[in-house]
Amino acid sequence: MTKRYKAKIGKRKLCKAINQYFVRVTCDGCGHSDLLKLRGWDAVLCSACKAELYKDGTYVEVAEAFREFAAGTLEKWATYSIAFSAMDRSGITLDEIKIIAFREAKIGPGIIENRRANWLGMGAA
Ligand SMILES: [Zn+2]
């Protein structure tokens, strides 16, 4: 299974020639680091171990929740609570949740929309 980590991002350095910032991104899985542009990506593959490194740890958290749900170790509303709470604090969008839910737990986008409506109906947001 693909491993996912929050990317460890070093100090930004300006490359004056192209007026872009670069950062050293370190993989939590194997410790390898790559020099990458600061902007223009949300997730990258570690060039050494091929783990997915996410700029925002929210993606990792939500993916982990749906993976546990698929494995039967996390209850349904506990899973959606993690996903929608992250969405309510603007850490992730509904479209991104749909992509993660399908990838990790084969839950279709229509179901996610219904759950979101249920969630809002509960007055949780
Ligand atoms: Zn790695």
Task: Outline the structure in words.
This protein has helices at residues 57-71, 76-88, 94-105, 109-121; strands spanning 4-6, 8-9, 13-15, 20-26, 33-37, 43-45, 52-54. With 125 residues, it is of the alpha+beta class. The protein has two domains: 4-54, no CATH class; 58-121, no CATH class. Strands 2, 3, 4 and 5 form a four-stranded antiparallel beta sheet that branches. Strands 1-7-6 form a three-stranded mixed beta sheet. A hairpin with a 6-residue loop joins β6 (43-45) and β7. The model has no long low-confidence stretch (mean pLDDT 92). Zinc ion is lined by residues 27, 29-30, 32, 46, 48-49, 51. Zinc ion (ZN) is lined by residues 27, 29-30, 32, 46, 48-49, 51.
How does the overall form come out from the CA principal axes?
A: elongated
- State the total count of DSSP E strands: 7
User: Please, what is the average pLDDT?
Assistant: 92
Uncertain segments are: none
Which structural class best describes the helix and strand composition?
alpha+beta
Give a quick rundown of the structure.
With 125 residues, the protein is α+β, with helices and mostly antiparallel strands. 42% of the residues lie in helices and 21% in strands.
